[in-house]
Amino acid sequence: MEFKQKPAYKGYQPYSYLVKGKDYPDIDWQDWDWAGRHVLELSEEQEAMYREILAKYPVISLHDHPTFYPRDMSTLNKIYDSMRQGRQFCAYEALAYSNLDCVFDNMMDGVNIISSPGGWKWIDIIHDLGMRLCDIAHQDFLVQCRTVDDILAAKAAGKIAWVPCIEGAACIENEVDRIDILYGLGVRLLGVTYSESNALGNGLKEDNDGGLTKFGKACVERMNQVGMLIDVSHCGQKTAYDAVMHSKKPIIATHLGAKGVWNIKRMASDELIKAIAQKGGVVAIEAAPHTTMSQTRMTHDIDSVMEHFEYVKNMVGIDHVSFGVDCLYGDHVGVHHAFAAALSTGDTAKSTLPYEEVPFVKYLENPTEASWNIPRWLIKHGYSEEEIAKVIGGNAIRVLREVWA
User: Fold this and answer.
1) Contact 192, 236 (CB under 8 A)
2) Which residues are bridge partners to 258 per DSSP?
3) Band of the pLDDT at 346, cuts 50, 70, 90?
4) Which of 77, 154, 361, 366 is the most exposed place for a label (fewest CB within 10 A)?
5) Contacts for 389 with CB less than 8 Å, ≥ 6 apart
6) Do 90 and 135 touch, CB atoms closer than 8 A?
7) Looking at residue 26, what is its pLDDT?
8) CA–CA gap between residue 313 and residue 100 (Å, rounded)
9) pLDDT (tens digit, 9 = 90+) per residue, 235-294?
10) Secondary structure (DSSP) of 16-83
């Protein structure tokens, strides 16, 4: 496969309207392709199908962190300092090599420790969002996305629609009106909880799950009213189920896998997957390191990820599954090790089965590589053009048309 950039990208680098080392710290970010550029091989006929599908249909990642992480992950202070500055560097050039037409960007989220090691503070969430919006405003390759039409227009122009998202609602505290504020600032997706509990309900790290609170129900209702997409990927199973059932509109679990394939807290039960589908929603399969593994593989690779995809597809149908690979640009395994407590990886991804740890998830290491290889895997395994069009973006668009105001 030839590595070509989208022609609409003109070379913009993050915060290039400022002076590096003077206006902000000069941090040595990792190369976006530090682990290599891995591409699944296709036959000549399959390559033609691949090019045709990408030309015709939007490609959407429903959950990613398309920003850089430091090259030097040797000490916690260096990693933490890069996050505390509150100025994430979007990987514009790397995204230009991708097939993405729309990316749901969850920004700093679990590593947003600008003013507190506990993270998720309202002032820090707004700082993160405002800083990124300022950088986005100084370039024209990523286009802030508010409607489905913005996605289609971005594809037609060879650009990428950028959707700012907040992965957990702890930052709204007990203020339902903050949902309106986030929406007004352009946020179009809000997670009910991250792995920790908050005023809305219980996160998936908890030993006990009391379900969606009354305040949580009010927040679900408000998200329905303003046109905010609801995510339950990090909720406890009962809280997630309650949110799905209480919502009058379909929801998307933006980055999950199936307990039926790999039984850890981070994965979804069959009951939850079926409930999401029955309400018209979508389960998007993730690929963050050491999450969507399987007993077939006993390690993490593209085939284990796609085992989750096919499990969900076989259970609820091709209309209710997609992808939110939950990747970043840098050493993702290193990030998990460094932020194990903040990201709750020990509580949510712990397995009772021994498995082979990988240094990176080959073919799905970052948003760019995932956008190449997911459609290629589907083609290699005999999926039709119609089926591929649905799972790479069509199913998401169907839900977005119903949810977004």
Assistant:
1) no
2) 268
3) confident
4) 77
5) 53, 56, 57
6) yes
7) 92
8) 22
9) 999 999 999 999 999 999 999 999 999 999 999 999 999 999 999 999 999 999 999 999
10) TTS-BTTTB----BPPTTTT--------HHHHHHHHHHHHHS--EEEEE--BB-BS--S-HHHHHHHH
Per-residue pLDDT of 284-331, as tens digits, reads 999 999 999 999 999 999 999 999 999 999 999 999 999 999 999 999
Regarding predicted confidence, which is higher, 12 or 82? 12
Quote the CA–CA distance of 65 and 75 in Å, as a whole number. Answer: 22
How far is 110 from 112, CA to CA, in rounded Å? 6
Report the distance separating Cα 262 and Cα 296, nearest Å: 10
Per-residue pLDDT at 349: 85
- The residues, ordered by sequence, that sit 6+ positions from 95 with a Cβ below 8 Å of its Cβ are 9, 66, 103, 141, 142, 160, 367, 368
Rounded Cα distance, 368 and 329, in Å: 9
CB 78, CB 338: distance < 8 Å: no
This prediction has a pTM of 0.97
343, pLDDT greater than 90: no
In this prediction, residue 374 has a pLDDT band, given cuts at 50, 70 and 90, of very high
CB atoms within 10 A of CB 7: 10
**CA dihedral in degrees (113, 14, 168, 80; nearest 10)?**
-20
**Looking at the predicted structure, is the pLDDT value of residue 153 above 90?**
yes
pLDDT at 77 over 80: no
Going 189 to 193 to 194 to 195, the CA torsion angle's sign is: negative
Q: What confidence category does residue 140 fall into, taking pLDDT thresholds of 50, 70 and 90? A: very high
Fold topology of 44-167+266-403: TIM Barrel (3.20.20)
Q: What is the DSSP letter of 185?
A: T
| DSSP calls for 89-126 | -B-HHHHHTS--SEEEE--SGGG--SS-TT---HHHHH
Lookup result for tokens 């990428």: 160
DSSP 365: S
CA distances from 383 to 388, 397, 405 (A): 6, 20, 33
